[in-house]
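Hi support team,

I've been running sequence recovery on a batch of backbones for a student project. Most finish fine, but this one hangs at about 90% for roughly twenty minutes before it completes. I'm not sure whether the input is malformed or the queue is just slow. I've pasted the structure tokens below so you can try to reproduce it. Let me know if you need the job ID as well.

Thanks,
M.K.
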């Protein structure tokens, strides 16, 4: 693991986790040390959201977290995407999502799981106290008064945002061709993941 105590170096950046038999995972985080601890804790408690990574850890037990580089928070997704583009075609790469910042991309809830969730919720009755609590929570989420909205509007007029912050808000706009290519690549990626998982 490569970490640094230099206060001038940002805590954010990109990383790689190596497991046994050549399997690995790449990612980014605003707090690399916190992310390292979270990955290790979830894996050791058999509670990791990436089931393929969990299966690899269960079988081989190895875990090596390496910081590849430090970047400002506004740049980490761009750098992670470069890693994903370079590695997602590798059968040893354990990343499920191929788009940075979209951890659910490529995941599909099995029909059996959806059926169980539906059955569990069917006919569910909420107590009067629960309904009252939901109503109170909803009331708090109602839009602000016209006076409050006017004050917020006046305070934001003329406010300038950096190009970096605007980019984080708007995100990348992909062409139709790019989206189609991503779809094809993701379909192939899922097939490779299933093939790799079947060999564990």
């Amino acid at each position: 693991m490569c970490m640094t105590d230099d206060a001038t170096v940002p805590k954010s950046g990109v990383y790689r986790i190596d497991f046994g038999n050549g399997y690995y995972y790449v990612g980014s985080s605003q707090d690399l040390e916190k992310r390292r601890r979270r990955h290790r804790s979830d894996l050791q408690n058999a509670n990791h959201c990436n089931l393929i990574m969990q299966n690899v850890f269960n079988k081989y037990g190895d875990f090596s977290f390496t910081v590849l580089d430090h970047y400002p928070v506004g740049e980490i997704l761009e750098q992670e995407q470069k890693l994903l583009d370079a590695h997602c075609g590798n059968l040893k790469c354990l990343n499920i999502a191929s788009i940075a910042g979209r951890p659910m991309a490529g995941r599909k809830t099995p029909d059996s799981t959806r059926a169980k969730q539906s059955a569990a919720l069917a006919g569910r009755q909420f107590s009067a106290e629960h309904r009252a609590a939901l109503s109170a929570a909803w009331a708090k989420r109602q839009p602000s008064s016209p006076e409050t909205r006017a004050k917020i509007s006046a305070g934001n007029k003329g406010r300038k945002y950096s190009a970096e912050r605007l980019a984080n808000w708007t995100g990348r706009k992909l062409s139709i061709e790019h989206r189609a290519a991503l779809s094809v690549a993701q379909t192939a990626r899922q097939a490779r993941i299933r093939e790799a998982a079947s060999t564990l």
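--
Follow-up from support: It reproduced on our side and the slowdown came from queue contention, not your input. The chain has a mean pLDDT of 79. No action needed from you.
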